[in-house]
């Protein structure tokens, strides 16, 4: 990506993950490189040469799926492509988020740009015009089995390209596609041989959700180090267990990174210094405090593995049939979503476990038998006030939900298309539930942040470390008050979610610690 111009260029090589994020979340403009145009034109000629061939070619002169043995006469092949898109745009349920649809569209364009699909140059340009005009097809929650590609989601995008169906314009209004395209000066595309198939036979929705999840989780894992450090400090725990030489004995890179973050965040704390004495009665902290780097570290390493797999997928050109580098047109199974589905399921486990350990730290703050001198539930007047009692209930409800969402989607398979497609990945479903998991994790960390901040304030006159003080300052500056009588908590929780999501919490902490890992 050209950071100065906010643009992304599609060539015949792989996209970078950062380019997908830039387009999906920040509306970067997408351009097609000349090398890609040349290859797209060249391989389109390969498909056009097959159009009059007496031998059947899947998706060019045949039907699809279980109808692949049905020969389609030349004068019906344009209708074949249009029928494919209309019939496959069969999604149902809630609308999918704009950033997911934009990622999906970009990733499909990336494959089209490789020349391996045989589409026309004008079809690639039409797709890019939709993205750059901020036109987002309405895609629904249900419809993809994660095999033969994300068929229904991609078909809704292709339908919009032909001027049919519904879209959201740049302002977010739902409009007929034909109307939005006309206003943007985009001519609808009439699909030619194989193009309908090429527009829908990819794993782009799954991959888009994986890339977005990796971006989110990398941020949230670092935030989990911040909230863990605040909890350890506020619960009078020790930072000795985060020493670098201890973590070198178990050389997982993510664990070492997390321990390093914890040391930086807890540095120079008066609260920590107050009980760093020989007669301190606590020999060992509870696991939720002491083992924070092991859990967050394993999460980091799992996300890094998912990023490796995502990188392989970004280098892929997925279609069926596909045009090989020596111009053979070959059927294949590269549209199967298993490689992506497994990663999406792994990451749902990561989200659930990070949330689980954070909730346990919160619960310790609220129990006067375990919080080392703080009032029960951190209430101002216990009995009259309930403090943060029900905030922990909210955490517990979310964590329970995340544990259910951690059950893998990819172990399921329901045959389709008259048993032709008899094993599918359910990767789209894995991506959908992972997005809910990430939102839940962010909310659990927000409640730990509020709880730890209140607990640290209640240790006055002892002062927290500079980094945790910076975190508290951001929270209170955004409107989350310190200790005091009971008040309406829901808006404060949403505020804490916001300062995590918009990066202001991390920025404040890093202004003291320097860059966290």
TrEMBL record:
GO terms of molecular function: histidine ammonia-lyase activity
SUPFAM superfamilies listed in its UniProt record: L-aspartase-like (SSF48557)
Catalyzed reactions per annotation: L-histidine = trans-urocanate + NH4(+)
Gene Ontology biological process terms, A to Z: L-histidine catabolic process to glutamate and formamide; L-histidine catabolic process to glutamate and formate
Protein name, entry field: Histidine ammonia-lyase
GO cellular component labels: cytoplasm
Leader sequence segment: none
Predominant subcellular localization, coarse grouping: cytoplasm
């Amino acid at each position: 990506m050209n950071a100065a111009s906010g643009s992304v260029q599609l060539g015949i090589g792989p996209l970078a993950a950062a380019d997908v994020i830039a387009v999906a979340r920040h509306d970067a403009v997408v351009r097609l490189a000349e090398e890609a145009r040349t290859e797209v034109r060249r391989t389109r000629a390969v498909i056009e040469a097959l159009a009059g061939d007496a031998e059947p070619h899947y998706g060019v002169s045949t039907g699809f799926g279980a109808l692949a043995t049905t020969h389609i006469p030349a004068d019906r092949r344009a209708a074949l492509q249009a029928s494919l898109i209309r019939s496959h745009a069969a999604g149902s349920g809630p609308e999918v988020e704009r950033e997911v649809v934009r990622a999906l569209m970009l990733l499909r364009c990336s494959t089209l740009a490789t020349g391996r699909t045989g589409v026309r140059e004008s079809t690639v340009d039409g797709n890019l015009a939709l993205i750059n005009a901020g036109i987002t097809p309405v895609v629904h929650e249900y419809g993809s089995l994660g095999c033969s590609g994300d068929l229904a989601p991609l078909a809704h995008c292709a339908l919009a390209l032909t001027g049919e169906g519904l879209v959201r314009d740049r302002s977010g209004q739902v409009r007929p596609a034909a109307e939005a395209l006309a206003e943007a000066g985009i001519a609808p595309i009439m699909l030619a041989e194989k193009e309908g198939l090429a527009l829908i036979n990819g794993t782009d929705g799954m991959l888009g959700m994986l890339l977005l999840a990796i971006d989110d989780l990398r941020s949230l894992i670092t935030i989990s180090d911040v909230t863990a450090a605040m909890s350890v400090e506020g619960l009078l725990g020790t930072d000795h267990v985060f020493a670098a030489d201890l973590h070198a004995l178990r050389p997982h890179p993510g664990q070492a990174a997390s321990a390093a973050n914890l040391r930086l965040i807890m540095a120079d704390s008066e609260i920590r210094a107050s009980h760093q004495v020989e007669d301190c009665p606590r020999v060992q902290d509870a696991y939720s405090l002491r083992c924070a780097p092991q859990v967050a570290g394993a999460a980091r390493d799992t996300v890094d593995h998912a990023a490796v797999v995502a990188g392989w997928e970004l280098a892929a050109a997925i279609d069926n049939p596909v045009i090989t580098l020596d111009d053979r047109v070959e059927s294949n199974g590269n549209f199967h979503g298993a490689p992506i589905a497994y990663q999406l399921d792994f990451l749902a486990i990561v989200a659930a476990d990070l949330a689980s350990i954070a909730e346990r730290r919160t619960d310790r703050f609220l129990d006067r038998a375990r919080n080392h001198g703080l009032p029960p539930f951190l209430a101002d007047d216990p009995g009259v006030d309930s403090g943060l009692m029900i905030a922990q209930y909210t955490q517990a409800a979310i964590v329970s939900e995340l544990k259910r969402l951690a059950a893998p989607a990819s172990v399921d398979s329901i045959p389709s298309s008259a048993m032709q497609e008899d094993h599918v990945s359910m990767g789209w479903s894995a991506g959908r539930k992972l997005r809910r998991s990430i939102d839940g994790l962010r909310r659990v960390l927000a409640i730990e942040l509020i709880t730890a901040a209140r607990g640290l304030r209640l240790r006055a006159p002892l002062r927290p470390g500079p980094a945790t003080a910076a975190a508290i300052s951001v929270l209170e500056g955004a409107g989350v008050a310190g200790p005091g009588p009971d008040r309406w908590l829901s808006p404060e929780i949403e505020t804490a979610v916001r300062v995590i999501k918009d990066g202001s919490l991390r920025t404040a902490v890093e202004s003291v610690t320097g860059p966290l890992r």
